[in-house]
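Exercise: predict the fold of this chain.
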Amino acid sequence: MVLRDGLFHADPHPGNLLSLPGNRVGFIDFGMVGWLSPQRRRQVLGLMRALVEGQGRSLSGVLLD
């Protein structure tokens, strides 16, 4: 949801999530939601990739950008 649409739920505790049939998740209480721009989504992907691949230089580059 975050990487595809840019929308995220900023308070995802068990009281705000429902387990639905078909291996789906339902979100409730949208008092705290946010949106990431396409550029920020690319940065998040770069950050996750650098973490997974152990690329400290790339990681610091994303964080300092």
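Check your answer against the key: The mean pLDDT is 85.
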